[in-house]
Input
Amino acid sequence: MSSNSKDLSNPHLALSPADRTTLFDSDRWRLRLKGLALPVLIIVFLEIIVRIGWLPAYQMPAPSEIALTLGDLAEGALWKHISASLLRVLLGFAIGASLALVFAAWVGLSREAEAYLEPTFAGLRSIPSLAWVPLLLLWLGIDETSKVVLIAIGAFFPVYLNGVAAIRNIDRKLVEVGHMYGFSRRRLVRRILLPAALPGLFTGLRSGMSLAWMFLVAAELIAATRGLGYLLSDGRETSRPDIVLAAIIVLAVLGKLSDGLLAGLEKRFLAWRDTFNGTED
Amino acid sequence: MKPALRFSLVHARHLFSACALALGLPSMVLATESPPAEVHLDYAYYSPVSLVLKHFGYLEKALPQTKVSWVLSQGSNRSLEYLNSGGVDFASSASLAAVLSRANGSPIKSVYVYSRAEWTALVVRKDSPYQTVADLKGKKIAATKGTDPYLFTLRSLQQAGLKKDDVELVHLQHPDGRTALEKGDVDAWAGLDPHMAASEVQAGSRLLYRNPAFNSYGVVSVTEKYAQEHPQAIDTVLAAYEQARTWSVEHPQELAKLLADESGLPLEVAKLQLSRTDLGSPQLTAKDVLASKAAAPILVSEELVRRGVNVDQVIDQLLDTGRQQAVARQ
Amino acid sequence: MPHALLDIHVARKTFATTTVLNDIHLQLQPRETVSLLGPSGCGKSTLLRIVAGLEKDFEGQLLSHTEQLAFVFQEARLMPWLTVQQNIGFSNDDHYDRAWVAQLIEEVGLSGFADALPKALSGGMAQRVAIARGLYSRPRVLLLDEPFSAVDAFTRMKLQDLLLQLAERHAIALLLVTHDVDEALYLSDRVLVMDNRPSRIRQELAVQLPHPRDRRDPLLARLKALALTELHRAHVI
Output
């Protein structure tokens, strides 16, 4: 007698408040379980085939071994590496995203600015991340500066692109309402353009965040003394694939957490959107 | 092929070899081995003999029906990575690096010594104020993880009473480490020849600390699987290596020129590198095993290997001293 | 004659090379309701926008004009991120007159929806909010551009009655653009029938019926026939 959540809209009104909460809880848990099903399956599968020997352990360590390594690392240097990486990512992202928002607003609002700036940005945008590395190392050295700049570059372009698109995609009809009220340019931006562009901006921010993590790893693989990318290369150079995988897992978790934070903000600020949410089946 | 089928075939092969060995018929197993279709080797500027081998094509002549391919290695860490991933069949690395790799689970065996050199030291810029290793506390040292210079650095630090966390070790591949030192991005560099010699000659860099005993010898390694399946191929390759080594010993001037040409460095640099390289004894002996065991504790004390690993046992499994006859035969 | 609230003469309005409006003279008295009736593209919306000040590039003059105008568009054009009450008080940012907004919400029949988001409103409800928004600034003239063309016939009739009530209560003049003959006749004191491009006012129909009007009134039917004849003559239909 399982009913999908669509049917709940009627019958649930007839339920007592207590019943209603338990129904919601079980729905939420069911959703979480569905999400966990695939990863758990993969982990169990890997554990079995490594233990049997179908995959050699020196190339693909068993998940249980990786867990042990994570435990070892957690007792020791892992936090030092995590904090080093987090600091770089957050700083780089903050710088890159803020600059991108400023430029996006400028180019989005002004045809003149677009004519001057857009071609240059389009060119810079197509430079792949790894190509920046030797240049930045040469100009800025192997210290924090080159790494944070690389990450900022990575975060910049998605935020900029999405920002410009978001502004250009704003419904002209809404802007006209502002014109009708005689809004000044600044008031127009603040009251109409910015909120209307917010969905696109958030998309850009989330994209920029994930690219920031990617550029972080690129930066740390080349010349670092701490960080998760450093840990990654450590595992590589000393034939410790378990460390490699442990670092990857930590990176994935942190990436997911930072994205989840943005997604949560997005949900909160964009609750007003009237959009397609996927079908139940 | 279905996994189940492949699984049982692999096991069938292992079973067959096991039976053959058990019945004491190694010659029968050898006789059934045909020359491999392909063989992949690495070559490196820190292994002058490999350059000779590649240049004169001794192996290509010895295995006319085999496709021989060469990969340039920038360091022990790269060589061992290629070996573990199947990119090469024969890898040239420092012996201690091979020990580390094996200790961390890579099933490899070292079968030949391509050189015994004093090829690493701690290098500083010519105007650097540092005089001893202890002066490097809290400073930046460029060192390639998983290579002999890295392990040399750790051993030198330990001797000066420092741990690896007392300094900042920057992971850069050997040539990049040299650049970083000369540019001033790092305070010291764990150098490797020929880049180290080049830095001395071309930039006037100074060797802050040298210690021949802290250098490990260079070995050629294969995977265990390869050793089981292609023992004859290994003999052939080692015979070719011997040819190259003999030529090298007999033609030191030409060797220096070849090294200079291949590495793109001046002749003076090549000569400096070769002056501290000994190509005389290619066999792995019990003495080498002891030397490695003496060096191994650094791997444990700096937590480069997993806890609970018996490094002595690892060394015994790694170093194949039984190759003596094969090598001496040539 | 009392001083006209609006007195506009548009000698000519062109878009690129097309002349859209030609010699239009429009007047609006206080509390009067005037409809501009004509086919799509004939320029009636353009005329309305000129009156609203949204279109400044034309040959002609504004002999009399008031700043106290409000505009209601064909679509509600509510800010989707603001609630109903925030939308109504939009012109005053965050410090809108809450009591006045609450009253307007009552008047347009949306009690209880003060904190609803536009996505939760039907087309008719959204248009009510748009009207309330128009009324917020206490205009003397309300300009409406085909305001009910996007809703169904029954909702349309309800909204027309609402509009009349509000205009009466707040003493507002209405200038309405529509292509619906029935709507024009039901709402207006005067109906101006417009031509195709280049457009001019072909005919002015006076509807001298008191409000509230009965949609079944035979006078409306007779006037409708007149309007349709004129439109036919103008090759609009």
Notes: Chain C touches chain A at residues 52, 54, 71, 73, 75, 77, 79-82, 90-91, 93, 117-119 (CB under 8 Å). The radius of gyration of chain C is 18 Å.
